[in-house]
Design a protein that fits this description.
By secondary structure, the chain is mainly α. The chain is 73% helix and 1% strand. The protein contains 20 helices and two strands. A two-stranded antiparallel sheet has the order 1-2. The longest helix is centred in the last third of the chain and has 42 residues.
Length: 451
């Protein structure tokens, strides 16, 4: 079978799965992307198929996360949190359907602008790859402190870097003494499902349970369905105004270059800049939403692609989180030595198979969200249990952890999830900081203690 057909099929799989997942509010990108991408890799999928799958999944997720954000006023995922205020403004005006159309059209633009931009920048930065590889331990440590300082936990995140590195290295040393190999997947999974697992722990605690108990079900008011186009596939070029198109193009291009910054932070920043230059509540809300959802897409794609093309080591928040299996998925991919998509794919491969992924995703997720957003939201609210989704991903994490180290892998995963999840929930130490510390832990412990 042609590799292009394989890539097309996996792009289709990624688009369908994550179009559905994106409709479920509150899903965390890292917690859902890491286990499923790991599973795809460990099943023996060719690198081209893996990359097409990931690109399709990212775009589909960020197109349909706009549905609960716009129609119900609840964030589809963590990346949608900065969009809530403007989406709420349009809901109060009785125009959530306008918010939805602007958001997903901005996302489409962001994806197609970010792909070539990120590859070109990655190609340029590749000239300095040797320096980055040789200094990776120091770079990871510096990046951990920078990301921690600019995270919502700020000084608390900075303070726990060395204790968390000690914790990770201790677990690594202990597990090595039992299975005679360094584990990676279990650490990834533990950090990824940490926020989910912390909610389960809170529910099981008589002390913390009172903080999450709800006395009555949440109530959501959905606007009536409206359609202003003929046929199934709306023309995205008629959805945005000229000013919105220009602002989105500029913002997504700029954000594609800032691959070391937080995607949520860049989304909020670009929304504020554009909003401050737009007068009128309606124009400000619609323009900001268009730009911000475009930036969620461009930052995610760029932060995955640039480190892959340039270095082969994860040097961005997205590369350390949702995209981490593309770099490190033992025994298939590794970062020491570098043996991952950076090794297997050329710049043209990244462009061609990335284009296959986002094109397939756009053809599936975009018209689906435009035509069936309200009906899909009703079905999700009525029949999909949030607890079932959490259980599914934790179950998948157990499967993959068992694959790597049997019972030890499962116990280690939940040990990391307990500590990492509570650090995230209580102190605001995000997954990006924890992943960066995981990579930096060996260098930190070697530098401080010589081990």
């Amino acid at each position: 079978m042609s590799i292009y057909v394989v890539a097309l099929l996996f792009a289709l799989l990624g688009a369908v799965i994550f179009t559905i997942i994106g409709l479920i509010s509150g899903t965390d990108e890292t917690a859902i992307m890491v286990p499923i991408t790991l599973l795809i890799i460990l099943l023996g999928t060719p690198p081209e198929g893996v990359f097409a799958f990931f690109m399709a999944a990212v775009l589909a997720k960020h197109l349909t996360h706009a549905v609960p954000t716009a129609l119900m006023g609840i964030p589809g995922d963590t990346m949608a949190v900065p969009l809530i205020d403007h989406a709420t403004t349009l809901r109060r005006m009785g125009m959530p359907h306008i918010a939805l159309r602007k958001m997903i059209t901005g996302g489409i633009m962001g994806a197609f602008i970010a792909l070539p931009t990120a590859i070109l920048l990655g190609k340029f930065l590749g000239q300095f790859a040797d320096f980055f590889k040789e200094s990776s331990g120091l770079i990871f440590t510096i990046a951990a402190f920078l990301i921690a300082y600019f995270s919502r936990g700020k000084w608390a995140s900075v303070i726990v870097i060395i204790p968390f590195a000690f914790f990770i290295k201790s677990l690594d040393t202990f597990s090595f003494s039992i299975v005679d190999k360094h584990l990676t997947i279990t650490f990834f999974l533990g950090i990824a499902i940490g926020p989910m697992f912390s909610n389960i722990l809170a529910a099981a605690s008589t002390v913390a349970r009172k903080e999450i108990i709800r006395k009555k079900p949440n109530t959501y008011n959905l606007a009536p369905e409206t359609k202003s186009w003929k046929g199934y596939f709306p023309n995205p070029f008629t959805i945005l105004t000229r000013k919105q198109t220009i602002f989105t193009s500029i913002a997504t291009f700029i954000s594609s270059l800032t691959f070391v910054f937080s995607p949520v932070g860049m989304t909020a920043l670009m929304g504020e800049i554009v909003g401050s230059r737009t007068k009128g509540a309606y124009k400000q809300a619609t323009t900001s939403l268009t730009v911000m959802n475009g930036v969620t897409e461009s930052t995610y794609i760029a932060e995955a692609i640039i480190p892959l093309v340039a270095f082969g080591i994860p040097l961005s928040p997205v590369a350390l989180g949702p995209a981490s299996p593309l770099f490190n998925a033992p025994p298939v991919y590794s970062v020491d030595p570098i043996h991952n998509l950076h090794t297997f794919l050329t710049s043209w491969d990244f462009f061609i198979f990335g284009l296959i992924g986002i094109t397939v995703s756009a053809l599936i997720a975009y018209p689906f969200a435009m035509n069936y957003a309200r009906k899909a939201s009703v079905l999700v609210l009525k029949f999909v249990s949030q607890e079932a989704i959490i259980a599914m991903f934790i179950g998948l994490a157990c499967l993959l952890a068992y694959y790597e180290a049997q019972l030890l892998g499962i116990i280690l995963t939940f040990t990391v999830a307990t500590v990492g999840g509570l650090l995230n929930r209580i102190l605001g130490v995000g997954a990006g900081v924890q992943f960066m510390v995981f990579y930096a832990s060996s260098w930190i412990m070697l530098t401080l203690f010589g081990v």
